[in-house]
Amino acid sequence: MPGRLDLEARFEGAEINASMRVRPFTEELDIDFDIGVDNFPLDRLYVGPSLTGYANVALNGEIQSRDYLSLSVEGTASIEPFSIVIEGAPSVSLGSIRVDVEQAKASESADGLAWDFSANIDNRSLEISSERGPLLSFASAAIDALTADSAGQYAADSVLLEGLAALETQEQGGVFVERTEIGPVRAGETQSIELGAIVFGGVTVTLHRTAEWIAELSLMPGGEGPAELDGEKPREDASASLQLAVDEVIFADEAVIALNDASLAQPIQHELRIAALRVGRMDMAQPDIATDVSLDAAYGENTTLQLAGTVRPFAPGGAAFDVSGQLDRLALPDISAYAADAMGVNLKSGR
Length: 351
Prior knowledge:
By secondary structure, the chain is mainly β. About 0% of the residues lie in helices and about 65% in strands.
């Protein structure tokens, strides 16, 4: 008959409840357990990064030992609010993170330790900031059917981001995306990443250009201004290690890209409205395979732009384009500020 051990304790303000059911006097170890932790303060963990927040855990599982030890666990773990600060790196904070562990297993064998993991993850209100300001934030994120194993294989059925914002400035500039869906996702130990369709909905990009640089890009690390080529060290080719493939990229509804250009003697505002954009499959492992692209957009009140063709984004000598397009009813006064700045000529009419 199994014996039972119950524990109730407090540690650093956290409540800990645990129970174990052990089958004694057998040749094989067999333990069932339940563990609950409420409001454990992360700042009491003395690790390298600075952590804040409170952790809550509710797990149950089984430990067995026949020829080798094995462990299986399921349950939930959550932290809220959470922040992590690593010296010299952007800071990360979020309202909450919850992990629903469907199953986690680990077992020893003659070949070593093997493990696998499956879970759903839900995040709320994440923000990544540098010393210059916020870099990236989103209202919520969800990873559905995440799996991983000791063979180095990782996968998820889908990733959903809502309320994404990046490179926000005091001038109300930045990148804003109401909804981003990615899926499925596959990654392997050979640094290969395979993404299904990436679908963007509700995209708005607002940029502010000055005589020095684009204000929103200056928030990025190393984004103080255009790179100087003289004396610049050659960059390592990232494609030598990372192999990325994407099935397609789609704008699900109208996207708006606005540029407020104050670099000219006569400041001007531009607005490009993208009615449809699709980019076909891209694969770094097949750099010579052409990718289909199509764009349907409008500029100003009457100007329309259509592009269609192919691109090889990972071609060895740099991106290669074979694209044809049609631009209709471009009002010359819309570009008059650039003509005046370059040649001292004002375009008052014409298309």
